[in-house]
Amino acid sequence: MRAIIVDPSAPAGLRLADVPEPVAGPSQVLLEVHHASLNQGDLNDARSGRVAPGGVLGSDAAGVVAQAAADGRGPATGARVVALASEAFAQRSAVEVSALAEVPPSVDLAEAAALPVAGVAALRALRAAGAVLGKRVLITGASGGVGRFAVQLAAQAGAQVIASVGSPSRGEGLAKAGADEVVIGLDGVDEPVDVVLDNVGGPLLVAAWELLAPGGSLHSIGWTAGEPAVFPPYSTVGPPKSLTSFLNQGEAGGELATLVQLVAAGRLAVEVGWHGPWERVAEAAQALVGRRVNGKAVLDVRPAAG
Ligand SMILES: NC(=O)c1ccc[n+]([C@@H]2O[C@H](COP(=O)([O-])OP(=O)(O)OC[C@H]3O[C@@H](n4cnc5c(N)ncnc54)[C@H](OP(=O)(O)O)[C@@H]3O)[C@@H](O)[C@H]2O)c1
Questions:
Q1: pTM to 2 decimals?
Q2: Residue 274: CB within 6 Å of ligand 1?
């Protein structure tokens, strides 16, 4: 079958290749992948060697169950599902039943494919922040995949949402998505915030920390800035507040079920800023790294499917 593998000599460090068919374990379905979505983490996996050269990349997939799990659990053959699983960028992928959720007929599979890494990270980070009703929640990198989901989820949870982006065009649609304020960097944000969901790191993380109110929490989800965060002397001394690391870990079936239900109910919009066949994955990677994707990048693995 075809899959996107790590190749350090290829553009963006990845390319399509022929690989062996996956073999599903007893608690796994064999998923026929129709759509996948590209994450910064996939590019980091390729660059860092976390996935070795020749290994299959990808975490986000949506498609149809080609073979149900042998242990009898999970969706039946033919069910439409979305999954957060390794080796997702392939025509077929073996996926733990606990790592997937069924997709209602009203939800487009291409949109479902955009949910796993970014949507689950937004949901889990927001839950880690606790109740946000009436609180000021700052979301950095709000133009991106995690950010656009986080803005919507925080607004629905009753937060006053401040969405930080790099330029006015990157902020398009965020007010409609529920942001009370859309700001460039942290321009004009003078009042303290109670929670920060940080996707950018570097100097913006330091500036966000300085805005954080006593008792507040900053959740470090990502570090797209790629620059160090240099804290001025004594900036970490004072009334207690916390900076906490974040990692998407553990099977995500429960969170995926929540997210697809929100999409089906019209309460969570999936903004797809780049959509094309998986043969163009290097172009999608360049757009993502170049900050030209508003929301998510979705790859069609099997274009005719819906
Ligand atoms: N810890 C975890 O388990 C976990 C899970 C999911 C994602 N992540 C990480 O969280 C981060 C956000 O993920 P995402 O899917 O939302 O990524 P994304 O779609 O690429 O969005 C990231 C945003 O960061 C901003 N940014 C600021 N400086 C940047 C730079 N130098 N290069 C690129 N972008 C820059 C961009 O917004 P502007 O152009 O508006 O500035 C961009 O929209 C990534 O680092 C990702 O790896 C971590």
A1: 0.98
A2: no
